Amino acid sequence: MPNGLTCRQTLALMGFLLLPAAALAQGTYPEKPIRMVVALAPGGPADTAARAFAPFLGQVLGQSVVVENRPGASAIVGTESVTRAEPDGYTLLFGSSSTFAVNPAVMTKLRFDVQKDLKLVRLIAQASHVLTVRSSVPAGSLADLVKLAKAQPGKLFYASSGTGGAIHMASELFKLETGTNINHVPFRGGGPAVLAVMQGDADVFINDASTTIANIRAGGLRPLAMLSPKRSPLLPDLPTSAELGYPRIVSSSWVGLAAPANTPAAVVARLAKATDEVFRMEAYQALVKKTGFELFGFDDALTAAFIKAEVEKWAAVAKSANIRIDK
């Protein structure tokens, strides 16, 4: 045998040399920078969360994690680009609740299946929604708003950042659970929507507490309830919808890290472990708090249960409100 190797050692060496390159790469992943696609425009909540997360993930992995915005068609363009990417761990998706749960519920012609074509690595963070009204609306509580809407069916209007988006769906969830009839006024983005409410073109607005807090503090919007299981540190005195008798009105904008479906299990596990390490870093925790997001910290079982519940909830809302988008 060469160099004194036994027959068994020689066969083992030959087997190692014949391993596919992808199998070898799993042990040293990552060996080059990683591209993390955000399927939404720069400056929004998902983009902010991605840019907070990327450098910490890169620090743990020992490689740069480059954020790339690929907006278009309600996050479809960027999401589809990742589903079609090489499943090697070097192209990832930093997706939102719209990507993973809302779009599949309302869009009838998606060219991909999120649950089959993507592998969710970890849920990263969430921004709870707050229900507000224009300051001149005669409703000082959630009960007042429900009473007002029922007394004047079809007379109130709620604004959203666009048809079929997370805010539209959250507002329809509110209508479904309270049995109210409030008309929808869609706008091209959250900025125009909140401006329209404060100018009197709509009465009700649900949005991320992190992006609405400034208007609340300025007095343009009156908060009535947090749509979250627990109170928000941004508005600690504001009760949740559950406290006010509506435990099923729960809504948030959340983000998660995903890879193409056939990404090797070892690579996905490396990314999951690295993400868990990022979650434990005090500097990252402090930065997330400043953005208005909250860390998930879910394990695999809780993640699976959360995603299942979100998909089912928004599918039921879409069916009830007859929301269908032919994309």
Question: What topology does this entry show?
Answer:
Blueprint lengths: L6 H11 L3 H8 L5 E5 L6 H17 L3 E5 L6 H8 L7 E6 H10 L7 H4 E17 L7 H10 L5 E4 L5 H13 L4 E4 L3 H9 L5 E5 H9 L3 E6 L25 E9 L4 H15 L2 H10 L2 E2 L4 H22 L6
Helix pairs in contact: 3-11, 3-12, 5-13, 8-13
Structure, described:
The protein is an alpha/beta fold and 327 residues long. It has 2 domains: 14-127 and 252-321, Bordetella uptake gene, domain 1 (D-Maltodextrin-Binding Protein, domain 2, 3-Layer(aba) Sandwich); 128-226, D-Maltodextrin-Binding Protein, domain 2. The chain contains 13 helices and 10 strands. Strands 1, 2, 3, 4, 5, 6, 7, 8, 9 and 10 form a 10-stranded mixed β-sheet that branches. Helix 3 links the parallel strand 1 and strand 2 (65-69). Helix 3 (45-61) crosses helix 11, helix 3 (45-61) packs antiparallel against helix 12 and helix 5 packs parallel to helix 13. It is globular and about 65 Å long. Residues 9-26 have low confidence and may be disordered.
Examine the coordinates and then state which fold CATH places here, giving the name of the CATH topology of the largest domain: D-Maltodextrin-Binding Protein, domain 2
CATH superfamily of the largest domain: Bordetella uptake gene, domain 1
Please bin the fraction of helical residues.
40-55%
Tell me the strand percentage band.
15-25%
Query: Which CATH C-level class of the largest domain is it?
Result: Alpha Beta
Provide the CATH architecture of the largest domain: 3-Layer(aba) Sandwich
Beta strand count? 10
SS element count, helices? 13
Spans of at least 5 consecutive residues with low confidence:
9-26
Going by helix content, strand content and strand pairing, the class is alpha/beta
The average pLDDT score comes to 91
The largest sheet, given as strand count, sense and whether it forms a barrel, is: 10 strands, mixed
Please tell me how large the radius of gyration is: 23 Å
Distance between the termini: 64 Å
Characterize the overall form. globular
Number of domains: 2
The ordered string of helix (H) and strand (E) elements is HHEHEHEHHEHEHEHEHEEHHEH
